[in-house]
Every structure is written in structure tokens, then in C-alpha cells.
Amino acid sequence: MKRAALYMRVSTKGHGQTTETQALALCEYAGHRGFEIIGEYRDEGISGSKDSRPALDRLMKDARARKFDVVVVARFDRFARSVSHLLRALEELNHVGVDFVSLSESVDTSTPMGKMIFTVLGAVAELERNLIRERVQMGISRARKEGKQLGRPKRIFDRETARTLVETMSVRQAARQLGVSRGVVERTLSSTEPAQIAAE
């Protein structure tokens, strides 16, 4: 018998909104599938856009501890705040061997059809990442052709000046006076290359 965790969320606490409606549907589904319900995770009055949701955070922690075999939710948007968040969560659940079921979308990652939908969603997300990367590269290429300087500005200082400064002050203080990071000063002092270093 599979052990199931039920996750529910409503954005507004009160005003007639509770997680009970979701709970009824999830419990009915779990009973129909013969799942043993080992926990209910409820975020009430928590916006779906929030990065941190106490019950969801606890659920993911318990998933990593393999306290259950399947997570059941009413809809994708009750569980994840975005497609990318959904995919990251599903990838993590898949990695630890926990299945995912969404009633509204009829997705069950333990079935061949559910695995296919997960794969398609992942492919769409990868395409989106590649398109963004391509647009960034095109922007960089255009900027270079137009002669624009990319990256952080260069700060040029004499290595001997840096050596003189560190004789009377700490490397951190010398870096502050030169307008660069401590690491830049340390690398410059130990290097024999020309002292034209990108500020950090």
C-alpha cells in the first residue's frame, strides 16, 4: 500500500475559504486508490507567489526523508507558484522516488502518461531557458559590434603602490583605498602579469 501525503492551499484565510473542500476530494481519491494517508499539509492564507510556505516546505523535507510514496494535490496552482517551480519540485520528488498526482490535470507521474506529461513540461522549460540564453548572447554580440564595453570596468593601479600600501595597512584597507576587492590586491601582489585587474 502506498503512503500518501495530501497538500492543500488557499490564499485567503476566512471569508469562507478553507482547505476542507480540497481535503474532501483528496481523501476520496486516496481512498479510491487504496493509499494510506500519512499526513495532511495545509497552507491557509498563504499566497501562491510566496517563495516560502511552511506546509509545503515541511512536505518537501519529509519527501526527502521518504516519509511517503506519493504527493496528492487538487491542482497544479495549489502546489506550485510557477511552471519552473513546479518542474523543480517534480524533479526533486522524482529524484527521491516520490510520485506526484494532480487531480484537476489528471497527472500521475507513476503512470506512463504522467511521465510523458512531465517530460513534455521539462522540454518546454528547457526550450524557454535556451531561448533566453540565445537572446542574451545576441544582445552581447550586438553590444560588442557597437563597440560597447561589457562587464565590470577595469581599474588600473601600480603593483608597487599596492605593495607600499600593504606595508602600512592591512590588505583589506589597501583594497578599499585602491577601490578594488581584497582578492584583487592579493592576486596582483602575487602575480607577475601587468597590473590591469578587473575590479570585483
Chart the SSEs and their pairings.
Blueprint: E1 3-10, H1 20-33, E2 36-44, H2 54-64, E3 70-73, H3 76-79, H4 83-95, E4 99-102, E5 107-108, H5 112-145, E6 154-156, H6 159-168, H7 171-178, H8 182-190, E7 196-198
Parallel strand pairs: 1-2, 1-3, 3-4
Antiparallel strand pairs: 4-5, 6-7
Helix pairs in contact: 4-5, 7-8
SSE sequence, one letter per element: EHEHEHHEEHEHHHE
Beta-sheet strand percentage? 15-25%
What is the CA-atom radius of gyration, in angstroms?
27 Å
How many angstroms separate the termini?
56 Å
Mean pLDDT reading: 82
Shape: elongated
Beta strand count: 7
- Helix/strand-derived category reads alpha/beta
Unreliable residue runs: 194-200
Largest beta sheet: what is the strand line-up?
2-1-3-4-5
Number of helices: 8
Estimated helix fraction: 40-55%
User: Could you give a short account of the major beta sheet?
Assistant: 5 strands, mixed
Key traits:
two-stranded antiparallel sheet; disordered C terminus; 8 helices; 200 residues; five-stranded mixed beta sheet; alpha/beta
Q: Would you mind describing this structure in some detail?
A:
The protein is of the alpha/beta class and 200 residues long. Helices cover 52% and strands 16% of the residues. It contains eight helices and seven strands; from the N terminus they run βαβαβααββαβαααβ. It has helices at residues 20-33, 54-64, 76-79, 83-95, 112-145, 159-168, 171-178, 182-190; strands at residues 3-10, 36-44, 70-73, 99-102, 107-108, 154-156, 196-198. β4 and β5 form a beta hairpin. α7 crosses α8. It starts with a strand and ends with a strand. The model is unreliable at 194-200 (pLDDT under 50).
